[in-house]
Write a structure and sequence with these properties.
The complex is a heterodimer of chains A (388) and B (134).
Chain A: E1 8-14, H1 25-40, E2 49-53, H2 60-67, E3 74-78, H3 85-97, E4 104-111, H4 123-126, H5 131-136, H6 147-162, H7 166-180, H8 195-200, E5 203-206, E6 208-209, E7 218-226, H9 228-231, E8 239-247, H10 266-279, E9 288-290, H11 297-305, H12 314-317, H13 336-339, H14 346-357, E10 369-373, E11 380-386
Parallel strand pairs in A: 2-3, 2-4, 9-10
Antiparallel strand pairs in A: 1-7, 1-8, 4-7, 5-6, 8-11, 10-11
Chain B: H1 14-21, E1 26-30, E2 36-37, E3 52-56, E4 60-69, E5 81-87, E6 93-98, E7 114-123, E8 126-132
Classes of the chains: A alpha/beta (388), B mainly beta (134).
């Protein structure tokens, strides 16, 4: 039994991506959801399910009120920050595939630059009276308390073990910014960078330079999921959910899984194994990928966990423009979270959908199978999106 | 509030901070089978017993990885700040704030270096371990 092919994506919507939206997070999600429903040729009356991140500040019922929704038959949330992104689509797909709901909207909206900035120290995370708060008692009081620093700790060891350099990480930043430069929706539209720019950018958490780190952004994204049968009657070319998986591995923590013999991101390997099992595909079948890029080192580590290359060889894989348009695996053709915007991975899912539809501003010709991943360093998720 | 972010202290990690107050670096142990564990938890991963105790570590560690934090500002810390992951001879790994090493250059911290524990008294209620070169 498999989830593959049991649900389709029929609508995508978004607000503009900015540094100061000037409106509430709830309003952003309402706008993105309306946009997605219009794209899908549906109305709020068609929606009977909503799903989002545990971190989202707009509850399903608040969004439902603003949209004038009636009866909701399915609502759910996924934990672990950006690791939730693709899992919201999995939730929607499972609800549709089982008949629990007919039309489910996955949404995420925040003022992550003008409001609560994730790049700053989130002291509340250390003060939670729960197991996450206890976990953070080993790091925050000692000053290890930002996403960049937690990733830097992993990156340094990865460099040591496999001879990876900062310039290898820079290949990801250069690719992202090249793609953003031709995407009018991207914050860094028209602003490509060189590897020299990357190397010269100031240090944030050594070995991570500023240009290894994603943006902080305001905005919202919404995605509409329904059955393949219903999708056939709707205006957009349907995008099949060929696989949707979550993953957490042994001795898992949030951003600080430091106590495994070999640190790394085996949780993405858990996701990968199930994506390939569900879809029946292999890495060789993937035409383009959206790899979660809050920080560049994890993009290299993902290439290895996903099976595009073996452990330690991502540094060779990304050389010579291989992950740029025209390369053997173009990644993050919207510009990624470094170039387009940081929408907790949801804008990357939207780009994956555009690639299958054939409507990306940086279209990979004939893209039939697109891989999308969610946040790394945390319990995470992934999708394979395919043409029907 | 000035000072570093305060730890949430509950039943499963209280022994550690009770130890730091006495300038003891404690590692959780299983009273049934003796297996050590850090970070701790309410059950032994070797024998499933719930009877938890602790031992006092020798206070040494070898650098497994580290970062030098330059930005953003951190509550109660001076930047740049060196934070390391240490492998302790007792067989557990621990996050460690490091003092007395330059943030860059030939004398910067190295993977494989040995550090020893010292104590950072924040106030009457909180003491944190801080690590130095021997």
């Amino acid at each position: 039994m498999s989830l593959s092919g049991k649900a389709a994506i029929v609508g995508i919507g978004a607000t503009e991506f900015s540094k100061e939206s000037g409106r509430s997070e709830l309003q952003l999600s309402v706008e993105a959801t309306r946009d997605a429903l219009q794209d899908a040729g549906l109305t709020p009356a068609d929606v009977d399910g909503l799903t989002t991140f545990t971190m989202d500040t707009s509850s399903e019922i608040a969004l439902a009120r603003e949209l004038g929704l009636g009866d909701l038959r399915f609502f759910s949330r996924i934990n672990y920050g950006g690791g939730a992104a693709c899992a919201t689509i999995q939730q929607a797909a499972m609800a549709v595939a089982t008949g629990v709901a007919d039309v489910v909207v996955a949404y995420r909206g925040f003022n992550e630059r003008s409001g609560q900035r994730f790049g700053q120290v989130q002291s509340w995370a250390a003060q939670q009276v729960n197991t996450n708060g206890i976990d953070n008692s080993w790091t925050y009081p000692l000053g290890l308390s930002t996403p960049a620093a937690t990733v830097a700790m992993q990156a340094r060891r990865y460099m040591h073990d496999y001879g990876v350099t900062s310039a290898d990480f820079g290949a990801v930043a250069v690719a992202d910014r090249r793609h953003a430069a031709t995407n009018p929706a991207a914050f860094f539209y028209g602003k490509p960078i060189t590897l020299e720019d990357h190397q010269a950018s100031r240090m944030i958490a050594d070995p991570l330079h500023l240009l290894d780190c994603c943006q902080e952004s305001d905005g919202a994204v919404a995605i509409v999921v329904t059955s393949p049968e219903r999708a056939r009657d709707l205006p957009q070319p349907p995008v099949t959910i060929a696989a949707a998986a979550q993953g957490s591995a042994a001795d898992q923590y949030v951003m600080t899984s430091y106590y495994r013999d070999e640190i790394g991101i085996p949780e993405m390997g858990v996701v990968a194994k199930d994506l390939w099992r569900q879809s029946g595909l292999t890495p060789a079948d993937i035409d383009t990928a959206v790899l979660y890029d809050h920080f560049t080192p994890y993009v290299l580590m993902q290439l290895e966990e996903l099976g595009f290359c073996v452990r330690g060889e991502a540094k060779d894989f990304v050389r010579d423009g291989a992950i740029e348009l025209g390369g053997r695996l173009p990644i993050n053709t919207h510009g990624g979270q470094l170039g387009e915007a940081y929408l907790h991975g949801m804008n990357g899912i939207a780009e994956g959908i555009r690639q299958v539809r054939g409507t990306s501003v940086n279209q990979v010709a004939g893209a039939a199978h697109v891989l999308v991943t969610a946040g790394t360093g945390v319990p995470t998720s992934g999708l394979v999106l395919s043409a029907p | 509030m000035s000072g570093p972010v305060r730890p949430v202290i509950g039943r499963d990690n209280a022994y550690f901070f009770e130890g730091t107050a006495k300038q003891e670096l404690r590692i959780q142990s299983c009273n049934a089978c003796g297996t050590l564990r850090h970070p701790p938890g309410p059950a032994c991963l070797s024998c499933d017993a719930y009877d938890r105790g602790h031992v006092v570590a020798r206070g040494e560690g070898t650098v497994y990885s580290f970062t030098v934090i330059h930005a953003p500002k951190l509550p109660g810390k001076e930047l740049p700040l060196v934070v390391a992951l240490l492998d302790l001879p007792e067989g557990v790994r621990m996050v460690a704030e490091v003092t007395g090493v330059p943030p860059e250059g030939e004398d910067a911290l190295q993977i494989g270096e040995r550090l020893v524990v010292d104590w950072n008294t924040i106030d009457e209620e909180l003491t944190l371990p801080i690590w130095r070169r021997p």
